[in-house]
Amino acid sequence: MNIKETSKQKRDSLQQGIYKVINPFVHLLIKMGITPNAVTTIGFLGNVAAAVVIVIAGYRASHGGGLDYSLVTLSGALIIGFSLFDMLDGQVARLGGMASTFGAMYDSVLDRYCELVTLGGIAYYLIQINQFAGAVIAFVALIGSIMVSYVRARAEGLGIECKIGFMQRPERVVVTSAATLATGICGQCGLTAFSPDLILIVAMGIIAVFANMTAFARISHCRKALSSKS
Q1: DSSP string computed for the chain
Q2: What average pLDDT does the chain have?
Q3: Which band of pLDDT confidence, cut at 50, 70 and 90, is reported for residue 3?
Q4: Are 186 and 196 in contact (CB under 8 A)?
Q5: 114-128: per-residue pLDDT in tens?
Q6: Integer Cα distance of 132 and 198 in angstroms
Q7: Contacts of residue 7, Cβ cutoff 8 Å, sequence gap at least 6
Q8: Suppose 126 and one of 85, 93, 135, 158 were both cysteines; which one would form an S-S bond, judging by CB atoms 3.0 to 4.6 Å apart?
Q9: Which residues contact 50 (CB under 8 A, 6 or more apart)?
Q10: What's the pLDDT score for residue 85?
Q11: Residue among 172, 126, 180 at smallest CA distance from 148
């Protein structure tokens, strides 16, 4: 068994474990008559709210209001909470017998919007607190995040399964939300050893490196797959 197969098995096992935890809530949503698309929309709006909160934190910091790390903490908590809807919508569709081709497309599109607004909000925040280099890193992370998904979509359009790579959406969400939350909490605790915002910048660096590596790994995978077909 190779490393890719082992990694996939671990991801699948973790996913099944999470499903066991959230399934009772999923059944509740189904009984309430909430559709998968509604769940997807709620998750998107929550991520927009998270982006707005961190944008406000950056705006206030650059306009004499001081850096309010409680807003950064709130933003991280919102990203964590509403990103769970990423898993809920799929389960509601499957367990509720409401899966549809449009629903799958709608989910994928709003996932991309979620990443655009959250990472874009973080980039704006870093610019406003005079961390221009960090903002550039966040922008590169955003590019990598979008390209990981685009390469997969393009590959599947050509009939190639392309799910390889380390920094897929679940990993990116975990890194982004955890770093945002940690930055806010450390800032509120008055951390003086280093700037709490370095936590967020390092996290953006991790996504920037590994997301783009994943995108290029997928391009290479597609090239090999297409070469074997010709």
Answers
A1: --HHHHHHHHHHHHHHHHHHHHHHHHHHHHHTT--HHHHHHHHHHHHHHHHHHHHHHHHHHHTTS---HHHHHHHHHHHHHHHTHHHHHHHHHHHTT---HHHHHHHHHHHHHHHHHHHHHHHHHHHHTT-HHHHHHHHHHHHHHHHHHHHHHHHHHTT------S--HHHHHHHHHHHHHHHHHHHHTT--SS-THHHHHHHHHHHHHHHHHHHHHHHHHHHHHHHHH-
A2: 88
A3: very low
A4: yes
A5: 999 999 999 999 999
A6: 12
A7: 166
A8: 135
A9: 75, 76, 78, 79, 82, 118, 121, 180
A10: 79
A11: 172
pTM over 0.85: yes
Of 17-26, 78-87, 170-179, give the range with the top mean pLDDT.
Answer: 170-179
Give how far Cα 169 sits from Cα of 2, 9, 98, 190, 206, Å.
23, 17, 23, 32, 13
Location of structure tokens 């992370």 = 141
In the structure, what pLDDT confidence band is assigned to residue 106 with cuts at 50, 70 and 90?
Answer: very high
pLDDT of the residue at 6: 54
